[in-house]
């Protein structure tokens, strides 16, 4: 690999203004493919989920997946797009072995949704509006597997295998208008946009949008123009970037690379590029000029899609609250800072905390357990919070037991440990491990009497007014009750019995 000269990010921005375009592909979570009844389930035996239609065999006829169209309309509406009254699918003709039909059924000049926007919040709280050009329906390709080489790439491979299970899975492609005016924050805007879009897609329930599984991938188009000029420069298109961090890094790298080429008097070639996770660099893919001809034409085997206005309005009414709006509402309801909310979001805890509150916990306790003990355990186990073997209902029950005084925090942590270890619901763990706080006044009283008798010197100090010494006696009682007493109540009892005011 030839090393590429870069100029520093600051120097690049001192001379040039970045313009970006983001194309995001989202694999819908429909049960069946876009134009046939084949299953979309992941992990099946290669080529076991195929039929004459998705293999493009002669005589087969496609039928549009209604849920696919509904999902596209929902996405379009959530992005404030206009929804086409009538639109068609188009054939995008090209040859590639992972595409059995030799054309991709897509949409061309008649997308189902167009002219929208998505407001994204940057780290300093500022809102940046990203304008949406279009969102259209299409289908995914199959997968090639290059075998026999060292890298898994086609170069050096002895042969290739093809799996068509993914061919025909519904995709929605969402394309932004050129994003101008982001300046040095262009990479941050790119990342924030993809993050917000992913939250939105999840909130709509149309896809799980897991980037690491390729359910959502982003092409980053980027060009530079000299500061103060209008005309766009030539863009590069970094393909299939599949994490939020990589989106940001790819944009940043391309800014530095373009600046190096341009400032040394070179020209940028319009081409696709590959992103490399290891060092955040990109390398050239194929030359892609605007003359590229896919011989698009309307798909003759599918009827046009004409979503009725009534149906569109019905879908609009059913839209969930936008993620950004919901986040701000919850932040206020919970009384947390922007920073804490960001941590909650990063930890994937928002929905878990909401569900715990819905199950009866107060916001502060729900937050405390998920972001404290449970986050620690998830971290230790190297998993997500959501993957822990404890439900929001169970956490809410722990909160309730603490609130009513049956558990203190230390015991509550043991209860959580028991639930995670598969010992059952919190009540079952409390019973099974004998964990309830000793609240029986008689038993507590006896424990306090014993502690006073065993520590006569300390008791005298307390009697003579050194109330601070009570801590030692509280400790003795807690030890005697194996931590199962309510420490505050123990202290009260000690002072009461020794005849001093707390
Ligand atoms: P293609 O099919 O070649 O990928 P699209 O129009 O689907 O073209 O997507 C191109 C993306 O790049 C869009 O988001 C568009 O706004 C953006 N774009 C177009 N021209 C430029 C440019 N000169 N610099 C940066 N982004 C651009
Ligand atoms: Mg593109
Ligand atoms: Zn099929």
Topology:
Layout: H1 9-15, E1 16-27, H2 66-78, E2 82-83, E3 90-93, E4 103-106, E5 113-121, E6 127-139, E7 143-147, E8 159-163, E9 170-176, H3 186-204, E10 216-226, E11 236-241, H4 244-263, E12 271-276, E13 281-287, E14 297-298, H5 309-317, H6 323-334, H7 338-346, H8 350-358, H9 363-381, H10 392-403, H11 409-420, H12 426-433, H13 441-454, H14 456-463, H15 470-480, H16 487-498
Parallel strand pairs: 11-12
Antiparallel strand pairs: 1-9, 1-10, 2-5, 3-4, 3-14, 5-6, 6-9, 7-8, 10-11, 12-13
Helix pairs in contact: 1-4, 3-4, 8-9, 8-10, 10-11, 11-12, 13-15, 13-16, 15-16
Describe what this molecule looks like in 3D:
By secondary structure, the protein is an alpha+beta fold. It folds into three domains: 9-313, no CATH class; 321-424, no CATH class; 441-497, Arc Repressor Mutant, subunit A, CATH 1.10.10.410. The protein has 16 helices and 14 strands. The protein has helices at residues 9-15, 66-78, 186-204, 244-263, 309-317, 323-334, 338-346, 350-358, 363-381, 392-403, 409-420, 426-433, 441-454, 456-463, 470-480, 487-498, and strands at 16-27, 82-83, 90-93, 103-106, 113-121, 127-139, 143-147, 159-163, 170-176, 216-226, 236-241, 271-276, 281-287, 297-298. The strands form three sheets. It has a nine-stranded mixed beta sheet. A three-stranded antiparallel beta sheet has the order 4-3-14, with no helix packed on it. A hairpin with a 5-residue loop joins β5 (113-121) and β6 (127-139). It is elongated, with a radius of gyration of 30 Å. Magnesium ion is lined by residues 23, 219, 237.
């Amino acid at each position: 690999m030839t090393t590429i000269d870069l100029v520093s990010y600051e120097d690049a921005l001192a001379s040039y203004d970045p313009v970006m375009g983001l194309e995001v592909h989202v694999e819908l979570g429909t049960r069946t493919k876009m134009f046939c009844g084949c299953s979309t389930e992941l992990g099946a035996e290669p080529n076991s989920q195929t039929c004459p239609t998705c293999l493009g065999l002669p005589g087969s006829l496609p039928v549009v997946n209604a849920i696919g169209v509904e999902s596209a309309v929902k996405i379009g509406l959530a992005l404030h797009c206009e929804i086409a009254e009538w639109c068609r699918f188009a054939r995008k003709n090209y040859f590639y072995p992972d595409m059995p039909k030799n054309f991709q059924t897509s949409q061309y000049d008649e997308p189902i949704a167009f002219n929208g926007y998505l407001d994204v919040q940057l780290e300093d709280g500022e809102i940046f509006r990203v304008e949406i050009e279009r969102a259209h329906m299409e289908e995914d390709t199959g997968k090639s597997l290059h075998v026999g080489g060292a890298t898994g790439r086609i170069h050096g491979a002895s042969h290739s295998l093809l799996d068509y299970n993914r061919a025909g899975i519904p995709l929605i492609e969402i394309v932004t208008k050129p994003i101008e005016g982001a300046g040095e924050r262009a990479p941050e805007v790119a990342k924030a946009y993809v993050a917000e879009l992913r939250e939105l897609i999840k909130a709509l329930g149309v896809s799980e949008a897991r980037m690491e599984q390729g359910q959502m991938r982003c092409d980053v188009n980027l060009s530079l123009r000299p500061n103060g000029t209008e005309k766009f420069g030539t863009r590069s298109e970094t393909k299939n970037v599949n994490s939020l961090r990589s989106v940001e890094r790819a944009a940043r790298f391309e800014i530095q690379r373009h600046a190096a080429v341009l400032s040394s008097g070179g020209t940028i070639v319009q081409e696709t590029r590959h992103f490399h996770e290891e060092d955040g660099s990109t390398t050239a893919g194929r030359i892609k000029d605007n003359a590229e001809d896919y011989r698009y034409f309307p798909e003759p085997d599918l009827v046009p899609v004409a979503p009725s206005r009534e149906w569109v309005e019905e879908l609009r009414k059913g839209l969930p609250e936008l993620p950004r709006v919901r986040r701000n509402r919850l932040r206020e309801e919970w009384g947390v800072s922007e920073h804490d909310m960001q941590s909650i979001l990063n930890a994937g805890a928002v929905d878990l905390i909401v569900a715990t509150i819905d199950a009866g916990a107060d916001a502060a306790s729900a937050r405390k357990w998920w972001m404290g003990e449970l986050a620690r355990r998830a971290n230790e186990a190297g998993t997500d919070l959501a993957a822990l073997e404890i439900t929001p209902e169970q956490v809410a029950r722990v909160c309730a037991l603490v609130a009513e005084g049956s558990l203190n925090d230390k015991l509550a942590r043991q209860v959580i440990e028991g639930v995670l270890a598969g010992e059952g619901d919190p009540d079952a763990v409390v019973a099974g491990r004998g964990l309830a706080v000793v609240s029986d006044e008689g038993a507590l009283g006896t424990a306090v009497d014993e502690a006073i008798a065993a520590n006569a010197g300390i008791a005298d100090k307390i009697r003579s007014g050194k109330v601070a010494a009570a801590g030692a006696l509280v400790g003795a009682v807690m030890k005697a009750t194996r931590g199962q007493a309510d420490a505050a109540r123990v202290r009260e009892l000690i002072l009461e019995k020794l005849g001093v005011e707390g």
